[in-house]
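Structure first, sequence second, as always.
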């Protein structure tokens, strides 16, 4: 005779699966599922740096950029809206708050930083601080 699982066995199995998922390292990947969010590239442009971040679906008004010394911090919120009466069948687009700090190899002049976001790509010009630029000393 086949034994049907009890409701308690089913709930226990679900609890164990949730605990396993919660403690797995997959959650350490961040919002993008593949690493820190938003993913960035930083490169030199003359004496200055340029940071490019991918932020699809993030409104310009939901992004905050802070610069101090050699660190740039990008934070904000990514929202995914559903119709009011929608029953979600599959959810792969993640939403929520993000906060990313990137250490840079030079000091930045925060007064001259410029940022632009277009088509889900954030570009930040990070000018080198005058105090960080090498000085040429004339030998007498």
């Amino acid at each position: 005779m086949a034994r049907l699982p009890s409701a308690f066995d089913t709930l226990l199995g679900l609890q164990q699966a949730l605990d396993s998922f919660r403690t797995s390292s997959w959650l350490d990947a961040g919002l993008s599922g593949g690493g820190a969010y938003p993913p960035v590239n930083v490169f030199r442009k003359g004496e200055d740096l340029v940071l490019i971040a991918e932020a699809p679906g993030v409104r310009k008004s939901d992004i905050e950029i802070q610069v101090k010394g050699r660190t740039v911090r990008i934070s904000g919120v990514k929202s995914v809206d559903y119709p009011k009466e929608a029953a979600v069948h599959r959810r792969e687009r993640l939403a929520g708050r993000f906060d990313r700090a990137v250490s840079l190899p030079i000091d930045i002049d925060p007064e001259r930083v410029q940022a632009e976001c277009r088509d889900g790509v954030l570009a930040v010009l990070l000018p080198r601080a005058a105090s960080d630029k090498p000085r040429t000393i004339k030998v007498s």
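Margin note: Helices lie at 7-23.
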